[in-house]
Amino acid sequence: MWSKSYSVVTKDVTKEQMWSLVTDVNHWHTWDKGIEFANLEGEFQEGSHFVLKPKGGPKVRIQLIEVVQDRKFVDFTKFPLAKMYGEHTFEETQEGLKITVTMKVEGLLSALWVKLVAGDIVKNLPEDTAAQIAAAAQR
Question: What is the mean predicted confidence (pLDDT) over 13-25?
């Protein structure tokens, strides 16, 4: 299994502001420059799906497999012979809000999917998280 995490601590936003931003899936394209669109099917809850279209890539159907309001969500993407998980957590600390994203890929073709998808996601996490914080601060 392959796994990489990125964390940042900020006093610029609250967990409620971040939660409001990330649960508004249909507007992710307004702050995430790497996607054309994302459409949530139903409510932001365990078992729901959303379709995400990365720029230059095919549409991907992603399932929410764990949702803890204001604190954490885990998404799941199934690829041929591999599975990818994105865990997003918001933790209040004395230094500020700690935002952590952990990407995991497992399965027979995990190395291929890390190269094609997950590696780029992780590489862009510092820039993407900064964009999230800036957008959430406007809420």
Answer: 97
Residue 71's closest CA among 31, 29, 22, 27? Answer: 22
Tokens (6 digits) for 105:
């890929």
How far apart are the C-alpha atoms of 43 and 49, rounded to whole Å?
9
With tokens 């497992």, the residue in question is 106
Cα–Cα nearest to 106, from 73, 132, 78, 125: 78
Q: Which residues contact 119 (CB under 8 A, 6 or more apart)?
A: none
Sheet with strand 60-68: strands edge to edge: 2-10, 96-106, 82-93, 72-79, 60-68, 49-54, 35-41
Distance CA 139, CA 137 (A): 6
Separation of CA 106 from chain center: 17
pTM of the entire structure?
0.94
Tokens of 34: 């790497």
pLDDT, tens only, 57-101: 899 999 999 999 999 999 999 999 999 999 999 999 999 999 999
Sign of CA dihedral 32, 26, 67, 119: negative
The residue count for the chain: 139
